[in-house]
Design brief:
Length: 285
């Protein structure tokens, strides 16, 4: 029996090897990135988004993963060795590590396992301070304010369309408590609007300036961990530019509070399987 065969929603499937998948991790920590001497549970991943490229069809999809999704997450010892697996919010995968490569690899592992063992071909992790750098490189990003930010940043007034300053961008993309309904689903909607507005700005910069990817890589290096070189990141950016954007898919589920009072997102298994079959697998013959 083919070891690559998996059963999804009752259907035998095999991986689509024309697909390349890259994970973006937005980490909830500040300052210059440094290796933690011990695992202390800080630096959770507030943002998880996959870029899924079909190299045969020259298309790509975006797939956000709710940070509160309950799934199997590995706990690691201080030396990075495996301790146990627990069903918790997937955001904790990054917090179980050194804050650098082992945290990213643990997150890659959790996302891969949640999606039936898909191969993730690269990752980019950035912390909160990267938001201001990205916004600055863009020269500001235009968005329409659809949530109440009065307790977070009173300069962001509901109903107005503004070009975000670097400080405003940090509040708009990161803040959750006391903004809108306070849920991560609400924040994910804002993050999507920000990324959708950022994309054409960066696309034009990449097209018009061959050195922009080097500037991007260097300016963000203090706030970023990645397993890709600047050349690999440039190739990925160019491939995305030359491919058709098929939009964003989503995995359905239900929000609730767990026994400790934290948000928990229970993934709908049918929805998860449908998305996985559309993006990563083909029916086995």
């Amino acid at each position: 029996m083919d070891k690559d065969i998996v059963t999804i929603n009752g259907v035998k499937c095999k991986p689509n090897w024309d697909v390349k998948t890259y994970l973006y991790i937005g980490e909830d920590s500040r300052g210059i990135k440094k290796r933690n001497s011990e695992t202390n549970g800080t630096g959770q991943s507030d943002v998880l988004e996959l870029i899924v490229l079909n190299t045969k069809e020259n298309t790509y999809y975006k797939l956000p993963i709710n940070r509160d999704s309950i799934t199997d997450v590995k706990s690691l010892d201080e030396d990075g060795s495996y301790l146990a697996t627990t069903k918790v919010q997937i955001a904790f995968a990054h917090a179980n590590g050194d804050g650098m490569e082992s945290s990213c690899e643990n997150t890659v592992d959790a996302v891969s396992n949640m999606l039936y063992g898909i191969k993730i071909d690269g990752y980019i992790a950035m912390n909160i301070d990267a938001i201001k750098v990205i916004n600055h490189l863009a020269g500001g990003v235009p968005v329409t304010i659809e949530d109440d930010f009065s307790q977070s940043d009173s300069s962001l007034k509901m109903g107005e369309t503004v070009t975000l300053t670097d400080d405003q961008a940090l509040h708009y993309v990161h803040d959750r408590m006391n903004v809108g309904d306070g849920t991560n689903v609400c924040r994910m909607r804002r993050q999507k609007e920000y990324i959708d507005a950022l994309y054409p700005i960066f696309k034009n910069k990449l097209k018009s300036d061959s050195g922009f990817i080097n500037t991007f890589y260097n300016d963000l290096s203090d706030y970023m961990v990645t397993d890709m070189s600047v050349g690999e990141m440039g190739n990925l950016a160019n491939t995305i530019i030359m491919s058709e954007d098929k939009g964003e898919l989503s995995i359905d589920g239900t929000n609730a509070l767990d026994r400790l009072g934290f948000n928990a997102f229970t993934v709908d298994k049918t929805s998860l399987g449908d998305v996985a079959m559309k993006l990563f697998f083909k029916k086995a013959e």
